Amino acid sequence: MFSFDRQITRTLHEEHLATISTLERLEVIFRKYGPKKAPPDDNAEITELLGDIINLVACDVTNHFSFEEEKLFPLLGAMGDSPISSILTGEHRVILPLGNLLSELAKMARSDGFNDASWGQFRERGVELIERMISHIQKEEMALLPMLEDILEEDTDAQLMMTYSEMR
Amino acid sequence: MSANFLSGAAGRLLPPSIPFRFFTVAVIFYALFWAALFVSAQDVTSYMIGGGPILSVIHMATLGVLSMTVIGASLQLLSVATRKAFKGFWLCRLVSWFYIPGVFLLICAMYTSWYLGMLMGAGLTGAGLLIFCGLIIHNIWGVTDMTAIMAHCWAAMLCLVGLLALGILLIVNGAHGFMADHFALAVSHFILAVFGFMSLLAMGFSYILIPMFALSPAPPEGLGRWSVGGNITGLIGILIGVNIYLDWLVMVGIAFILFGSGLYVFAMARVYKARMRKRLGLPFILIRISWVMLLASVIWGGVGAAGYWPETGHILFAAGAIIGWLLTFLVGVLQRIIPFLASMHSSGNGGVPMLTSAMADERLLTVNVIGHLGGLFAVMLGVMLDWEMVIRAGAVLGFAGAMGLLIYLLYIIRHLASFRGE
Q: Which residues on A lie below 8 Å from B10 (Cβ)?
């Protein structure tokens, strides 16, 4: 695995791992159940996954993105490397509403179950989220986190970690 | 090695028309290669040396697909990896203006054994390759980090100059016959092209691309350095051994190449094992098979150097190295790099980044993988059994697979063009 020395990069990396793991489980479900017919309501695996998606969007997506935009990207900007920040911010603008929509659909499915139409919508949005999110994580892992490792001093790292803990 | 690779990418992306022109022509040659193999299947196993359809088919794969892809990918990746943008895009375009028509002419001339056409084609191709070589050397000059990748690039450029000189010498010697041992020249040219220029660039860029695509840490720099050292030593040993007829030296050279390739595959296996994303999809099926084929080809080369090849052993060796290792690897890389570049270009425009799955039907990539692997298996089997029909069947499968990739690429280009036009 990647070895990151800073607390904040380690934390963000662990969140990426958790996100990929949830998205891969979602991918398995989508492979199992096609777009036309909703899966049965009593599927425990799907019920658990829906809960994980709601959590994922609330914690690992919303907080993660806000923290990056409010605290990390300005740091990179001050170092003169803003192109990657603007690419990532642009992707946040697309991924966050998509994640929120999927989370809402997951909440509705947990209370009322899926019908064929809601499943179709959930699946379509889910597939899009998986593709966008994996590509986004790829950029963060290969660009953002290594850059932070290069520029962060120990005290800034501790400060950022504290701020992030409070935000979560 | 791959860390920070993407951080400067947005500012150092070439205009998409540059890499995509090479990729498009490469995929067209990929389809033509299988088609020509189908037509000339009866001559495959009996081919030993000289002009004609089989020489043309080999160069469709090496110059048309492999070098074409390597040029497009190198121009794009190197400027991002070294964080040095190419100063004049016109020089990158100039490479294509010489190289692409040159390869077409050379391949047609080889097919018809037209001496003057071969010379003119080789001249144009060589000019394109020399400009490419100059661009690469200018870009890597003075780069002190990423030593393993830079060593691969330097060694590949030296091999390129050598194989070009030998290639032109072979054409002239084919007509005038002034060199005593045409066969030793041809073997040297083949080794420099396949295990020198193309393999070294493929291996070097793997240290950036594979960790990036697999979401995995780069392997230790030392592995890359030992690997390239083994490969360079092996190449030198084989070239000297072949030309002064020292079989033991050829064997030692092959052992070094096996060591270098083994280390490369070991490094890549580490990257693969440590990946964050567990489902890497179809391209990695091709890429993993290509790594096996690389080692199998080198070992099979050793069997041949020891004198244990059957009658069609040399063709099996060429097919294993060219189709099994390089073509399979680069098609896998193309399957990932085409959507990746399309995504980067659409992200950099400030709008909503395009979904590659929305640009083209990804089932086309499945067609490509099935066709390619079916083609590879059937061609290898057909060569082993010396059975023309099986080779033809493989060519049909390979052609169908290549068409899948070509249609996929054309869809991506169409969407990218319309997106950038908005």
A: 83-84, 86-87
| A1 domain-assigned | no
CB B127 within 8 A of CB B151: no
pLDDT at B352 over 70: no
Least CB–CB distance from A143: residue in B6, B343, B347? B6
Residue whose entry in the numeric block shows the structure tokens 């004198």: B307
Residues on chain A touching B274 (C-beta within 8 angstroms): 1
Tell me if B72 sits within 8 A of B23, measured CB to CB. yes
**Predicted ipTM > 0.85:** no
Helix (H) or strand (E) holding B300: helix B282-305
Question: Tens digits of per-residue pLDDT, B101-133?
Answer: 999 999 999 999 999 999 999 999 999 999 999
Q: What is the CATH number of the domain that holds A60?
A: 1.20.120.520
> What's the pLDDT at B9?
55
- The pLDDT, as a whole number, for residue B315 is 96
| CA dist., res. B81 & res. B6, Å (int) | 8
Q: Decide if B347 and A84 are in contact by the 8 Å CB cutoff.
A: no
List, for residues B289-313, the tens digit of each pLDDT value.
999 999 999 999 999 999 999 999 9
Indicate the DSSP class of residue B7. Answer: T
Q: Which helix (H) or strand (E) holds A32?
A: helix A7-32
pLDDT at B421 over 90: no
Structure-block tokens of residue B370: 């099935």
Kindly identify which residue of chain A lies nearest to residue B336, measuring between CA atoms: A135
- Ranges of each domain in chain B: 9-421
Say yes or no for a CB contact (<8 Å) between B2 and A142: yes
For domain B9-421, the CATH architecture is: Up-down Bundle (1.20)
Q: In degrees rounded to 5, what are phi and psi of residue A38?
A: -70, 145
